[in-house]
Design goal:
Length: 72
């Protein structure tokens, strides 16, 4: 089983990559890229960890790769 990622680490990397908070609806937060406003990422705020499948979905939405998160 793959290790889940910590929510705070995912948010920190997104903020470092130029994303900013837009809004929150219930337990899902919306972040948009400062450099490319068409890039929108929805982050589930359901606890301290994000499961690997959800993490991969966030990567696809943000057009990032896993190496960006391994450095943190």
């Amino acid at each position: 089983m793959l290790k889940p990622y910590l929510l705070r680490v995912v948010l920190k990397v997104l903020l470092d990559k130029g994303f900013f908070f837009v809004s929150q609806n219930g337990s899902h937060a919306k972040y948009r890229c400062h450099h490319n406003p068409s890039l929108t990422v929805i982050i589930p705020i359901h606890g301290k960890e994000i499961q690997y499948g959800t993490f991969r979905s966030i990567l696809r939405q943000a057009k990032l790769n896993e190496d960006d998160f391994r450095k943190k």
